[in-house]
Design goal:
By secondary structure, this protein is of the alpha/beta class. It contains 11 helices and 8 strands. Helix 7 packs parallel to helix 8. The two termini are 17 Å apart. Bound molecules: cytidine-5'-monophosphate.
Length: 241
């Protein structure tokens, strides 16, 4: 088994459960976790999550919860019941919201006697670049400063890690220590275009920066041969060490 398998998360950004299950079957030998985001979840509901968990597949449920603390706490409780390995909330929801998510997820996991999912805070989306950040979001300073500030807040609230670009991974690691998880989307193998993703990094670059997990969607699922695409990414991950 490839030594980088456990670090690779493939985004199942497809419409149907059938497509998702086919991709999982095809890619499982090389991919340690699969991400279900809004497209698949809003179309197919929790059934597809439950089916993958039932098959023993590790699921990262990427619904980016962002609401008042009570609403997020109740949603976190429900998502914990699904048996996912990881889910996320927006750091921009604030500390009360993040703490509420952690508390209710831990409570629910304890009641059910299951492991608590990893809870990760989304920082600045990898589709945002510095000009858009400056003009549209109303924050001052650099993206990296905001990402690190949110990472520290998430850590203080008891979250397990953050979603960020690998461009910020070194700064997050320096501030949050060796055990804090850094999940990096915006991964583009050498020569593949970013499209809507702006703060892109190659698989080798993300590994060198200390990312714990690399999230890859279109470069794999839209490839003519997804297995070949995954193997190229694993090779690139290995080339950094
Ligand atoms: O196709 P691509 O590789 O750009 O897919 C990246 C995946 O990671 C998408 O499913 C996207 O929703 C997700 N994601 C992201 N940036 C974040 C959080 C999640 O791109 N900050």
């Amino acid at each position: 088994m490839n030594e980088f398998r456990e670090k690779l998360i493939v985004a199942l950004d497809v419409d149907s459960a059938e497509q998702a299950l086919d991709l999982v079957k095809l890619l499982s030998p090389w991919v340690g976790m699969f991400k279900i985001g809004m497209q698949l979840f809003y179309g197919q509901g929790p059934a597809v999550v439950e089916e993958l968990c039932r098959q023993g597949v590790k699921v990262f449920l990427d619904l980016k919860l962002h609401d008042i603390p009570n609403t997020v706490a109740q949603a976190a409780r429900v998502l914990t019941r699904l048996g996912v390995a990881m889910f996320n909330v927006h750091a921009a929801g604030g500390s009360a919201m993040m703490r509420a998510a952690v508390e209710s997820s831990r409570e629910e996991a304890e009641i059910l006697g299951i492991p608590c999912p990893l809870i990760i805070a989304v920082t600045v989306l990898t589709s945002i670049d510095q000009p858009a950040f400056d003009r549209e979001l109303g924050y001052t300073g650099t993206i990296a400063d905001r990402v690190v500030a949110w990472a520290l807040l998430a850590k203080e609230c008891g979250l397990d890690g953050v979603v960020a670009s690998a461009r910020e991974a070194v700064a997050i690691r320096q501030s949050c220590g060796p055990d804090f998880l850094i999940v990096t989307p915006g991964i583009r193998p050498a020569g593949v275009t970013g499209r809507d993703q702006k703060r892109i990094v190659t698989p080798a670059g993300a590994m060198a920066a200390g990312a714990n997990y690399l999230v890859v969607g279109r470069p794999v699922i839209s490839a003519p041969d997804p297995v070949k695409a995954v193997r190229v990414i694993l090779d690139e991950m290995g080339s950094s060490v």
